[in-house]
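hey can u check if this looks right to u? its 102 residues, i copy pasted from the old doc so theres a chance i mangled smth
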Amino acid sequence: MTQEHIREKRTTTFALVLILTMGGTIVWELFSSHHETRLDAIRKKGYPVSLAELDAWYRPVPEAQNNARFYEEAFALPVLRALMRFPGWIEDGPFLSRTERN
């Protein structure tokens, strides 16, 4: 056997061991039951553990206090949509003073 052949064999063996170790760890984590006990403990404290529970956990914001509507309307303006196509325009454009440009 040459040095190159031994080196190739070592690399292949290392890659195979790494892949098998990662695969085994993933399978172990997916099918082990210790996650359920953790989730039950969190649920007993009153915290949500799923997206559906999280959605029900938060109270909706009243429309009068919902500032997201303001941003939705602002980003829907045609001027802003045109500027968003050219992201470098704001940095290179007229908003910088002459000293900042140089």
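Residues 59-102 form one domain.
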